[in-house]
Amino acid sequence: MNLKILSELGEWAALGFYEALEQDLPWPLNYGRAFRRMYENMDVRVPGDKYLIPCEPFFMSQNMESHKLWSAAGLILDFNHHSGLKLNPSIADEKKKIFPEHAGFIDEFCADLRKILVRFGGYTHSNPDIRRVVGEGFLHMEKELDKELAAVKTQGDKAVPSELNLLLALKEYTTGIKAYYSRVNRTLMKSVEEAEGERKKKLKIISDSFSNCFMTKSETFIEGFLAVNFTWMLDGCDSIGRFDQALGPLFEKDHKGGELDLQFARELLDELWQNFERMNAWNLQIGGYAPDGKDGCNEFTRECILACGRNKLRRPNVAFRITEKTPENLVVEALKALSKGSGRPALYNDDLYVKTLKSMDLGLSDEDSREIGFGGCTETMIAGLSNVGSLEGEINLAKALELSIFGGFDPVGKVQAGPHTGHFEDFKSFDEFIAALKRQIQYKTDSFVASNQIELRKRFTAGDPKLYRTFFTRDCVKNRKSFEAGGARYNWAVLTYQGIANTIDSAAAIRKTVFDDKSISAEELVQALKSDFKGHEKTRQKLIASPKFGNDNNYVDEIGIDLLKYSWNELYSHETPRGGRYIASCILFTTYLGAGRSVAATPDGRRAFEALVDSVGAVPGCDEKGPTSLLKSVSKLPLWLAAGTPVLNLRFQKSLFSNEESLAKLAKLIRAFFRQGGMQVQISVLDSKELRNAQKNPEKYKDLIVRIGGYSEYFNGLEKELQETVINRTEHGI
Amino acid sequence: MTQITGKVFDIQKFSINDGPGIRTTVFLKGCPLDCLWCHNPESKGGDPEISFISEKCILCGYCAAVCPNKCHAISGKGHSYDRAKCLRCGKCTMECYSKALEVIGKEMSVEEVMSEVLKDVPFYETSNGGMTISGGEPMAQFQFTKALLEEAKRHKLHNCLETSGYAPMERYREIFRLVDIFLFDFKESEPARHLKCTGVPQEVIIRNLVELDSLGAKSVLRCPIIPKINDRKSHFKEIAKLADRLSNIIEINILPYHPLGKSKSSRIGKEYPMSCKEFPEDDEVRSWIEAVQDSTKVPVKKG
């Protein structure tokens, strides 16, 4: 590879990557050198309206708004928090325009990267250990690395090569970080000199604080804030972890001591929120138990809630962990922020999360079980301490149901996709049908686990070891194991389940019409499904009129309890190669429409290829008895077995948020849901009239945000089909 | 458990405007009053009725096939329903899977109603809510109402009873200990107008309210305000005056007119007598509340 041209193109990561390959340095030193060269050479930009510097993970970052890219990117070989170093074809096209003389080289370079960059299925969101960064500082963490490296080196020939190579690669990485930190520092000082007036004053605070933080322990709120921001940038702008817990004490100290300019602090918070949006970044948490078991809410928790109300953006996904001890006024404050329409914060039942994670076979200590963080949409993690394989895969329950009706044959793919579980027409009882369905679910689970285990193991010894996460996730260095190989203190893998309510409703309709009332014959049902209800409208209407999940009706709900207990226990019985368990979740968004497209007509009356339900809630429009009944139905499900986060979407009319009395009642509604076993709820405040208007006049509703499956999105950014789903979601209210 | 049954036209969960906390409101059918603005016209008659919502009809024609009296017909113009011939047998509603046709007013036992009401106990517990019986006029199904109240108390629920006040006093005496809060309607302060708008005299209602108060019954005075009918200053003053006579009153609720009664009337094939079809403006409602609040210390809220 021509390193000179790479350098000319500003392809710093590639430069390091190939440099290591040409020097025959062992894996993963090529990854270490790539990050080192990238950070040694990367420029820093200080836009005139920004204070959080760096404001992007790459100089000249191009964000998704302008380039429809998944995340901010600036290099042909760039990196994304979840997939690591990767080829970015859009940037390649851009660079060919800037360097026409190297167009041929760029093509060859891309072709080579395609060959040598390997990736093995699945990926994960994560959150860095910001408490150590704020409370100890980078240099302190690097000392731990030096210690391990020295220890391995003294072993001489007996040293485990993979341990040595990993630690050496990390050392390359930290060398790069230190160079980058110095450049940010110098750039900030220079921009202070160039700035004037109010801007100069504020930039001076930023510059001084930055030079005092990150490398060493943060002493002020602004220092802590900048250290967190820097770490988050280094992690590629994913999720932050327990933001208010890491910064709350500094905030309260500075605020009390009169050293904090509250207005400026809020300005910085707003800027961070906007950066999350711009970078397509993910999650941060507030509230929840502190490691000592006390409620962790502080003054800064409230500031974060207020920021959710002020910034009508779809990101960050703010997860508010509510404990029995969380002050009621903060819950009401969260509802008020929600009424502004950003869909944030989402509300979590912390007592149940802590209890559940503690009781699972995950090896959590009492203290760590209280350190829950979330990443991505809302995948459950231990903040800064875990690798939770947050999106290793999915299991489509509606598909399993379809297979159980057709004896394992997939009528869409036209192949035998599951075990032969018999003809539907031959089932003598509902129980026989359920047994067939369970067998199909079991088969799907086993096949997934088998293939996932193979893919996961490959990541131990090849591909991107995620050095940034290996360094910033606790215990990886101490264990001398990469983040990918299971170096974190806690490891598990989260799987998402699709079509839950469609499956429950379908089974209930079969129970009611085929076995109990005998109003539809088994033959007729099979024919109706095969023909997508064409010529079988009466059958479809009977199926639709059958009792549905979400109405606090045990006839239906008990089917859901049974099926999910079975499915989720099956999954949980498997161990992942990193150790830890597979944990179920219901977090759908990007996978949501796709899931429906692989399933033909279902016995709940859903037509072929229509969307499947996107949460643990009811099929949109099927919960006819209001929110208490929906919450009752949902909380009967064994949600604790889906602690990866069983998302529930609730939509309320704005009028419910109009006065204190009504807000207080809403808060009590949530508390009652949590007491009964609800784990998470995210609230949208909308009316369907507004949505219809938005559909007709998208230009007037550019900022309209809806939440779907753990994810806020601009309504007008949604496909028509998703828009319809959102509109059809039952509007609870009066 | 008692075998008393009653005619129920709705059980509404997550009621947050019918008393404290999160409640379940049981709506009973039948009312002796005939208020012009009635927002629950389907509650007036004591007998079951067939509701038809044309928007929900998918023109499948299954109703026409089962109707013994040929009331339903599907044609190019849509679905026609001849109510004059209808015997209200309800067979069509059994075949109407799209739920365009429904029976309003189901005969239910105390046990059936309570099993629905008790489902939401976890929500009553966190919010200090409970059961509200409304109507129609619950006192018109007195034995059933009494049995529901007793049963709810056996389960330690908080009870609210919404009433027009138009029932024999001895009946109120019989149940007032079972009711934690009376949601007591006060519709019109001038007796002659009251008779004209509601079809019943007003004096007995005030007498009942005052006596209940003297017995120690807690109440919320619920005042529907209907533009051009009772949105007069003098009426607001009289509301305040009446409230001041009561020693156990909690608050006054101003219930602004809403025109939903119109579509509900047409669903059951009835005329809607009101000409006003608009929601009052927020500012107007605020001015009503202020007008009442100016004359009394009893808190006045929008209900």
Molecular structure report:
- The complex is a heterodimer of chains A (734) and B (303).
- With 734 residues, chain A is of the alpha/beta class.
- Among the domains of chain A are: 3-116, no CATH class; 393-647, no CATH class.
- Chain A has 30 helices and 18 strands.
- In chain A, helix 15 (328-342) links the parallel strand 4 (317-322) and strand 5.
- In chain A, helix 10 crosses helix 11 (221-234).
- In chain A, 56% of the residues are buried.
- The model of chain A is unreliable at 64-71 and 730-734 (pLDDT under 50).
- Chain B is built from eleven helices and 13 strands.
- Chain B has helices at residues 62-66, 91-95, 110-118, 121-127, 142-154, 169-175, 191-198, 203-214, 233-245, 260-267, 282-293; strands spanning 5-15, 23-28, 49-52, 72-75, 78-81, 101-104, 106-109, 130-134, 158-163, 181-185, 219-225, 249-256, 300-302.
- In chain B, the strands form three sheets. In chain B, strands 7-1-2-8-9-10-11-12-13 form a nine-stranded mixed beta sheet.
- In chain B, helix 3 (110-118) crosses helix 5 (142-154).
- The mean pLDDT of chain B is 92.
- The A-B interface holds A 537-538, 541-542, 544-545, 552, 625-629, 632, 656, 661-662, 664-665, 668-669, 671-672, 675-676, 732, 734 and B 12-17, 21-22, 58, 60, 62, 97-99, 119-120, 122-123, 125-127, 129, 301.
The CATH homologous superfamily of the largest domain in chain B is termed Aldolase class I
Q: Trace the largest sheet of chain A across and list its strands.
A: 3-4-5-16-15
**What is the helix fraction of residues of chain B, given as a range?**
25-40%
Largest interface: A-B, 26 and 23 residues
Report the mean per-residue pLDDT of chain B as an integer.
Answer: 92
Helix/strand/pairing category of chain B: alpha/beta
- Read across the widest sheet of chain B, the strand sequence of neighbours is 7-1-2-8-9-10-11-12-13
- In terms of per-residue confidence, which ranges of chain A show pLDDT below 50 for 5 or more consecutive residues? 64-71, 730-734
Oligomer status: heterodimer
- In the CATH hierarchy, what is the class of the largest domain in chain B? Alpha Beta
Rg of chain A, nearest Å? 26 Å
CATH architecture of the largest domain in chain B: Alpha-Beta Barrel
Helix content of chain A: 40-55%
The fraction of residues assigned to DSSP E strands of chain A is 5-15%
